[in-house]
Amino acid sequence: MNKINFIKCPNATIASAKTAEIILATVRNNPQAVLGLATGSTPIETYKMLVRDANQKRISFSQCTTFNLDEYVGLKKADAAQSYRAFMNNQLFGPAHFNLDQTHFPIQWDQPVVANTDYTTYDAHIQAAGGIDVQLLGLGENGHIGFNEPGSSLTSLTRQVHLDAQTIKNNARFFKAINDVPTTAVSMGLQSILQARKIVLLALTPNKLSAINHLRTAQTFNRQWPCTALINHPDTTVIWVE
Ligand code: F6R
Hints:
By secondary structure, the protein is α/β, with parallel strands linked by helices. Helices cover 29% and strands 18% of the residues.
């Protein structure tokens, strides 16, 4: 059975406001909340709303702990600004006054991948912090969540992943040339994501509609559309714009 709560919104601003409100309510309820965070174009407006509230002193994120979903591997130094660490520091952590010592990524952007590294220490770290209270997700055109590309297993934990050709093409907009887009990343797995107590997935653009349709109609997990892993989660909200 598909247990997801779907909220269709007339535009991206309303969708972002609803998403921001879920995060704000979590932090109001527990100022020490553990937040699972995403990068990409989708959460930018939501993050702006969180920044605004923090600067108006309506909320404080200073005691929150954060775990980002993923980070690129093998970025050139010249592309440091495209690291997900840089994105988060600029879009949210700096302007909304998070404590940077409490913000975590599965790998540092300039850290080389060492063969056979066990990245599930990230999952252990999340659990040791009490588990994620609310996990924010974007959605890949191909249905990926985090960088769990089609074919990912429902039991996957944090690991090194290879980016799909479609993902590389979509993310090329941030780089000078498509060849500069990293082909690998370290990402939380589907199981890592499903351990969050609450999940909110945000999808704002028409290229996500096919994935949304698969998510709306799924009755079982379909490996070809990794987002369908969410259908059995007890508290997932999908906020989308048609
Ligand atoms: C980013 C992430 C990805 C993105 C997805 C959508 O941390 O994990 O799953 O959420 O690729 O990206 P945008 O929002 O740029 O369309």
